[in-house]
Specification:
- The protein is mainly α.
- It is 80% helix and 0% strand.
- The protein has 13 helices and no strands.
- It has helices spanning 3-23, 28-53, 62-80, 82-86, 90-96, 105-147, 151-156, 159-173, 179-202, 213-238, 242-252, 259-266, 271-296.
- α6 crosses α8.
- The chain starts with a helix and ends with a helix.
Length: 297
């Protein structure tokens, strides 16, 4: 089966969300509530249960974890280069720079399952467990610096950071959740993937005012081209196992998470340009993701 056909069901859910938002008679409050439920309840449940039960063999996955850090570092360094290169306004930079390194975990886990089944999901869960706190901390830092708010307070209030850190802590301490609790969390987590992809589609916004286009184009190019290219060089040089190479490049090539928009709005940033970057990146990734996965293979 070709990569494009392999990824079709998940991109179809994104398209379904866009069509439902445009043509179904659901009120705006419905979509707002759905997005909040996924962000504050369903997706944290998935992250917590995945990281709490993942087999964290750091020796076997050291190369994969290093590759994910290369993706994050590339996005951060090149993203921050936009400031001297294009001299964007402070609010545009603080809001948009997160789109150079943040990633859509709904798409990540859905596509990892397509590529490697349960093993692929487990590997991606490890990557997400390491990367979510870093990505959220960097995003919160940029916006908090602009708004002059407390960075650590914002990090402590982030549900994705809380869920990931708690799951990793239980895992490392060897604490096993009761089966009925784990089953409940896993059912909530399973709902997050389909509903999260539909919410991504419903949140697509490609129209409206778009300012400082060179800066926005730079953020998109860093996220969808430069970061996966850097990771491709890394996995080739260190000869990672095939599935780990695919997961690493998939992670690097992901579009930005819709939660970046929520964070920007909540912290007084420019929500409109973040919504555009998320939407444009998601649409472009329909083309770029299959190409990168083919390259990985």
């Amino acid at each position: 089966m070709s990569v494009a056909l392999l990824l079709f069901p998940d991109f179809a859910l994104i398209l379904l969300g866009a069509l439902l938002k445009r043509y179904a008679r659901f009120e705006l409050a419905f979509w707002t509530g759905l997005e909040r439920m996924v962000y504050f309840v369903l997706f944290p449940s998935l992250l917590f249960s995945s990281t709490a039960t993942a087999k964290l063999d750091f020796d076997a996955t050291a190369g994969l974890i290093a590759a994910s850090l290369v993706a994050m570092a590339t996005g951060l360094v090149l993203g921050y280069l936009a400031r001297p290169l294009f001299k964007p306004s402070p609010v545009v930079f603080a809001s948009g720079v997160q789109c150079a390194f943040r990633f859509n975990s709904y798409v990540a886990l859905a596509l990892a399952g397509r590529l490697g089944g349960g093993e692929g999901i487990a590997l991606m869960a490890v990557v997400i467990g390491i990367s979510v706190p870093l990505a959220n901390a960097a995003a919160v830092y940029a916006l908090a610096q602009h708004q002059k708010t407390n960075v650590f307070r914002e990090m402590l209030r982030n549900p994705l950071i809380i869920a990931t850190v708690c799951g990793l802590a239980l895992n490392l301490l060897g604490i096993h959740l009761p089966e009925f609790v784990l089953a409940t969390l896993q059912r909530l987590g399973a709902a997050s993937i389909a509903l999260g992809l539909i919410a991504v589609g419903a949140g697509l916004r490609l129209s409206g005012t778009v300012v400082e286009r060179p800066t926005l184009a730079w953020f998109l190019a860093v996220k969808l081209l430069a970061a996966p290219f850097a990771v491709w060089l890394f996995v080739r040089h260190f000869a990672l196992p095939p599935l780990q190479s695919e997961i690493a490049i998939l992670f690097a090539a992901l579009p930005t998470a819709s939660s970046a928009y929520i964070l920007a709005v909540r912290m007084g940033g420019n929500g409109a340009i973040v919504a555009f970057l998320i939407s444009a990146g998601t649409v472009i990734s329909v083309v770029t993701l299959p190409i990168w996965i083919n390259i990985a293979r």
